[in-house]
Amino acid sequence: MHTHHHPPSQAWHLVAGFTTIELMVTVSILAVLMALAAPSFIPLIESWRVRQATEQLQSTLNYARSEAIKRGGQVAIHKLPNNTNGCTSATDTRDWGCGWIVCHDTNSNGVCNPNEPVLQRIDTPAKVQVSRTGGGVSIKINRWGLVDGTYLGFNLVPLDKSTNHPGARGLCMSSGGRIRVIPPEDIPCTG
Description:
single chain; alpha+beta; minor pseudopilin epsh fold; 4-stranded antiparallel sheet; 8 strands; elongated
């Protein structure tokens, strides 16, 4: 049985012509949608960065605790200085926004000195402010894996936003070592 075929070149032109117009229309629609939707993605991205930093801090605290128990103390967590990797959100003693290191605190003075071995380094995601509610540039962990001194409190918020931002989080570690993450309405940590 003989069926009629279009010559291949002609068929191809039809298809190509159609998809080009279709593509142009689709791209225009997408451009409009993106312009409308982009602003609403910002809080989402901000919240995601805060969540990432919160998880990093949580895992650091757990890691530092287990290392301190293994080593009989001699572990400290120390904030990275301002202007590390172009980060400028750690101007104050309590601002940990540029990240932190965990070190083997060989002289047990509770800070990471330049000659002490770094066990872990965390560079926090950009545009997240991490501030301690008390204390300073370092945290000493004792041989029971607990903070030497009062409980720990951190506030993590998108850069230049307040703790009322829906993505803001507080991270608390009690003097007994329990770590919990709290929502904006419960910030700051109270113990």
